[in-house]
Amino acid sequence: MDIESARDYYLQKKGVTEDFPFDETTLVIRVMNKMFALIDLESSDKITLKCDPDYAIELREQYPGIEGAYHFNKKYWNQVPFDGTVSDSLIKQLIDHSYEEVIKKFTRKLRAEYDALP
Fold first, then answer.
1. Minimal CA–CA distance to 44: which of 94, 87, 81?
2. Where does the signal peptide begin and end (predicted)?
3. Which helix (H) or strand (E) covers residue 109, if one does?
4. ∠15-45-94 over CA atoms, to 5°?
5. Domain 3-116, architecture per CATH
6. Which of 43, 48, 54, 113 has the most crowded CB, counting CB atoms within 10 A?
């Protein structure tokens, strides 16, 4: 998988937006303004994704390419490479997991706004 394929995949999800809040090369992907993924466009070789803490450890043990995310709380964030060491289907599953991890923490009000989206 590459950045464009990942981008095509996550942009199909409800409530997803992109922005550059940190600098001009760090693309942040959000659902209802809550970050669930990040891609450094300068290196463009990995995606950073939110993850359940226990699942994050399991993934790091099972896949040598998956590691704790640089500059993030490694308990909740993993870096997943686009170099072929992780299958496209697993990357999609991890994007879905990250998206769901953020949605399940929505406040009641934010969840209602999300549910009201087409």
1. 81
2. none
3. helix 108-116
4. 45
5. Alpha-Beta Complex (3.90)
6. 48
> How are strands ordered across the β-sheet holding 77-81?
16-19, 26-31, 34-40, 46-50, 77-81, 67-68
Q: What is the mean pLDDT of each run of 10 residues along the chain (118 residues)?
A: 95 98 96 97 93 97 94 95 95 98 98 96
pTM of the full predicted structure? Answer: 0.95
Q: Write the DSSP symbol of residue 74.
A: T
Contact 48, 38 (CB under 8 A): yes
The pair of three-digit structure tokens given for residue 97, joined into one six-digit string: 């997991």
